[in-house]
Write a structure and sequence with these properties.
This protein has 315 residues and is α/β, with parallel strands linked by helices. The protein has helices spanning 13-24, 49-55, 92-103, 142-147, 207-212, 217-230, 277-293, 307-311; strands at residues 2-3, 6-9, 29-33, 46-47, 66-76, 79-90, 106-109, 115-118, 121-124, 128-130, 132-135, 159-168, 177-180, 187-194, 198-206, 242-247, 255-256, 259-261. It has an 8-stranded mixed beta sheet. Strands 7-3-2-11-18-17 form a 6-stranded mixed beta sheet. It has a 4-stranded mixed beta sheet with strand order 1-10-9-8.
């Protein structure tokens, strides 16, 4: 059986950031993830200046593709608002692998199926044993399902349905566009150029409202893609689009003695924009701090909204 003091289930930004702090402090942290890295991860890849500050890295020091947006273009029907800012787009394929390597922690590819508590330890699939357990496996994290779901079910009104695609494309327009409430969608859609000749397009809306209106996210996706083609932002309808669901910020329980939830496993995406990278990284750092100091783990310091980082990026 593989032994570790701390096992982190999930190697994305939350898990890698937590592991990095623990490893730096000399603690024995092991990351388990069902995927090998680098791996494809659908995400608009929005990184704020605050994220780089938390990581202790300047954007120009990041070794992979990165694009700086000095303006964001918000579109509400026929009204357009251009906001001066300083935001960055990255490819999660590169970013997550970089964070994982940078953590220095042990990593094993393994899909967690069963977790049980045995005396003062946790046993995972009868193959791994630890004293402290961190759930960083996203919305469907097995740590959340095993220990939190029954007592702290997620709020259905915070559930977001999303369709998204990142693909090679020689984009002609380098701006970032965000369309809100298009076609009466309770959410927004986006067009985000990426480095190395890639483009990310996506759409997300509140699942409960879609159901109430007897709509599907697929219907809104088709409307959105037609709009992009009409505007000549893309040449044809992209194929192999994928959908997924996650939850916006809800201040639920994130610690149960020696069990911690971070990132999307804790439901921390910002309420206004559904941005998850910043909250994921900060929650990983906060959980590591709590483990190292023995103090309670709290997400109170994690911003609930993205607009502060958009408007006050120089902080």
């Amino acid at each position: 059986m593989t032994e570790a003091e701390i096992i982190i289930v999930g190697g994305g930004p939350a898990g890698a950031s937590c592991a990095a702090e623990l490893h730096r402090a000399g603690r024995d942290a092991l990351i388990l993830d069902k995927k090998s890295f680098p791996r494809t991860k659908l995400c608009a890849g929005w990184v704020t200046p605050r994220v780089w500050k938390m990581l202790g890295v300047k954007p120009q020091e990041y070794p992979h593709s990165i694009i700086l947006f000095k303006k964001l273009h918000y579109i509400f029907g026929k009204k357009r608002l251009t906001v001066p800012t300083r935001q960055y787009s990255i490819r999660r394929y590169e970013f997550d692998h970089w964070l994982l390597q940078r953590s220095g922690a042990r990593f094993i590819r393994h899909q967690v199926q069963n977790i049980r508590r045995h005396e003062d330890h946790f046993i995972i699939d009868d193959q791994f044993r630890c004293k402290i357990l961190v759930g960083a496996g996203g919305t469907n994290c097995p740590v959340y399902r095993t220990f939190f779901a029954r007592h702290k079910p997620r709020q259905p009104e915070k559930r977001i349905a999303t369709m998204e695609l990142e693909f090679p494309f020689a984009w002609r327009d380098s701006h970032c566009y965000l369309w809100f409430f298009d076609n009466e969608l309770a959410g927004y859609s986006w067009y985000v150029p990426k480095g190395n000749g890639h483009l990310n397009i996506g759409i997300g809306g509140k699942f409960a409202i879609l159901q109430k209106k007897k709509q599907t996210i697929q219907q809104h996706w088709r409307f959105f893609v037609n709009k992009l083609m009409q505007k000549q932002l893309i040449d044809s309808e992209p194929q192999a689009v994928k959908g997924y669901q996650y939850f916006l910020r809800q201040d639920d329980q994130v610690q149960m003695k020696d069990i911690y939830l971070i990132g999307d496993a804790a439901g921390l995406a910002t309420i206004d924009m559904g941005e998850g990278i910043g909250p994921a990284i900060q929650s990983g750092l906060l959980a590591a701090e709590a483990i190292l100091t023995g103090q309670p783990y709290s997400i109170a310091r994690i911003p609930k909204f993205s607009f502060w980082d958009i408007l006050f990026w120089w902080r």
